[in-house]
């Protein structure tokens, strides 16, 4: 295994090449499925959206949002670009969504298509490099990051249904490689809910979901990108949805990617605390912009007889409900 000196650089070999090959191969299975999803006729955006109406405990949600301290969104001037009608959006689908939750990728594509946004899925995409980067293997992460940028360089808008992977691209690519060609691509990656609300300017997707829902706010999205209001805004405009405030929403769920492997006891303890707060909220469904967090918490919910009725769902899955 590689070791690190005081300068943080790798001092030995790592299985970065093996990770790269794994990422390349695992994406193959989802490519054909997603191509079929994207390939249908585009539904044109109807500018006559129904009036925005909040349902459920929206006052609680607004209170939580206003009480949170929003950090930088990872953009140079803090300003989001405005979407130009007809411009393509390239989908970046994280590895774990491609392999374990492909329905989230399909829901993301369906949402964009419904808005009349041309969707493309660059088939050369692999990983954003976050697992290697978070484990300290920056040189190996750099090769994956550069490949990512080669694949996505042609696109102005890159949409990802993950706050964690978006943060890796927009914030941490610069630490991996400060080359402007790398940094500029990373800053064109947007998490799905912020792309909809801040870039496209849409708050109401016409969804209907008659359940009590609470929301877990993932650390990367909230702390690195300032994402909290955007998913709450989208949820508050889902017809018949009742929002249940999550106690201590700012607390980590304990997943942390490789942290959950290196520190399983601490990770599980944090997850159990999060699961207990989800139960206290009274919700039937817990959602998030990060399925990785929900995968961790969902496993804990499923193993507890008092909690197993609570269903984890990515926000994209809720937004396509009718």
What does this molecule look like?
The chain folds into 2 domains: 16-48 and 84-200, no CATH class; 212-319. A 4-stranded parallel beta sheet has the order 2-1-3-4. It has a 4-stranded parallel beta sheet with strand order 6-5-7-8, with helices on both faces. β7 (285-288), α14 (291-302) and β8 form a beta-alpha-beta unit. It contains 15 helices and 8 strands. The protein has 322 residues and is an alpha/beta fold. α7 packs antiparallel against α8 (180-186). The protein is 48% helix and 8% strand.
Distance between the first and last residues' Cα: 50 Å
**H/E topology pattern:** HHEHHEHHEHHEHEHHEHHEHEH
Q: Approximately what portion of the residues adopt beta-strand conformation? A: 5-15%
Q: Main sheet: which strands, in order across?
A: 2-1-3-4
Tell me the number of structural domains: 2
Main sheet makeup: 4 strands, parallel
Q: Mean of the pLDDT scores?
A: 83
Radius of gyration: 19 Å
| Bulk shape | globular
Number of strands: 8
Class of secondary structure makeup? alpha/beta
Which segments are poorly predicted (pLDDT under 50) over 5 or more consecutive residues? 1-26, 28-33, 39-70
Helix content: 40-55%
Number of helices: 15
């Amino acid at each position: 295994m590689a070791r690190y000196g005081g300068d943080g650089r790798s001092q030995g070999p790592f299985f970065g090449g093996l990770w790269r090959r794994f990422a390349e191969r695992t994406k193959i299975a989802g490519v054909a499925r997603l191509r079929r999803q994207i390939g249908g006729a585009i539904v044109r955006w109807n500018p006559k959206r129904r009036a925005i109406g909040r349902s459920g405990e929206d006052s609680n949600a607004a209170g939580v949002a206003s009480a949170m301290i929003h950090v930088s969104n990872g953009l140079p001037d803090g300003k989001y670009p405005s979407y130009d009608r007809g411009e393509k959006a390239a989908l970046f689908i994280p590895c774990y969504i491609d392999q374990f939750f492909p329905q989230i990728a399909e829901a993301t594509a369906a949402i964009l298509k419904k808005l009349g946004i041309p969707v493309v899925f660059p088939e050369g995409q692999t990983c954003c490099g976050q697992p290697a980067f978070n484990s300290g293997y920056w040189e190996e992460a750099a090769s994956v990051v550069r490949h990512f940028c080669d694949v996505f360089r042609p696109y102005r808008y890159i949409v990802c249904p993950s706050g964690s992977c978006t943060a890796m691209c927009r914030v941490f690519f610069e630490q991996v490689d400060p080359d402007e060609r790398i940094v500029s691509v990373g800053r064109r990656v947007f998490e799905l809910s912020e792309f909809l609300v801040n870039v496209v300017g849409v708050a109401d997707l016409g969804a209907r979901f008659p359940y009590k829902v609470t929301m877990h706010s993932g650390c990367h999205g909230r702390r690195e990108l300032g994402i909290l209001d955007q998913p709450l805004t989208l949820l508050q405009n889902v017809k018949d949805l009742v929002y249940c405030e999550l106690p201590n929403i700012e607390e980590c769920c304990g997943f942390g990617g490789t942290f959950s492997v290196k520190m399983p006891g601490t990770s599980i303890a944090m997850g159990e605390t999060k699961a207990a707060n989800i139960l206290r909220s009274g919700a039937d469904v817990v959602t998030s912009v990060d399925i990785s967090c929900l995968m961790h918490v969902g496993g804990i919910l499923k193993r507890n007889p008092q909690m197993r009725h609570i269903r984890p769902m990515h926000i994209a899955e809720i937004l396509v409900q009718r």
